[in-house]
Amino acid sequence: MAHWLYKSEPFKWSWDAQVKAGDKGTFWDGVRNHAAKLNLMRMKVGERGFFYHSNEGKEIVGIVEVTREAYPDPTAEAAEPWVVVEIKAVKPLKTPVSLATIKGEPRLADMALMKLSRLSVQPVTEAEWELICTMGGVDPA
DNA sequence: GCCAACGTTGGC
DNA sequence: GCCAACGTTGGC
Fold this sequence. Notes:
PUA-like_sf, 5 helices, DNA-binding, THYN1-like_EVE, 5hmC_binding, ph1033 like fold, EVE domain-containing protein, alpha+beta, single chain
C-alpha cells in the first residue's frame, strides 16, 4: 500500500478543519501541478498519508486516509484536466514531526519533502512512513 | 524546440 | 521581506 504526504497552508485548510469534516471527509482541491496530479491519480481508497502544514508550523500533524479516488476537480474549469481525491482525518500524531526534525534525520534526507519542497502532493516510501510514524508516536499500521 | 522572463511556492 | 527552486509562457 502506497503512502502520501499532503501539504496545506493552515490558513487555507488546516488539520483542525480536516478533523471537523469528520468521517465524511472532504475533497482535496487546488492541485494545479501535473506531478501532483499524477500522484492523486495513483491513490487508492484506504491508502494513508501525512497531513503537513506549510508556512505556518512546518510540521506533519496528522494522518489521513483516501475515501474516494480521483475524479474531475469541481473547482476547475470543465475543459481543464485537474482532479481531486477525497480524504478524511484518521488520527493526529502524538508528537508533530517538524521540518527541522526531518532535516536532522539522515534517513529522511531523500524524502520528496526535502528534494521537491514545492510539490503539494508527494509520495512517501514505506521506510519513511514507518520512521515518521514512530517519531510521531503513532502506530504505522 | 530552445531559452529567457516571469510568476508562484515555501523556507528562512 | 527576501530569495531559491521550479513550472509556465512566449519570442525567436
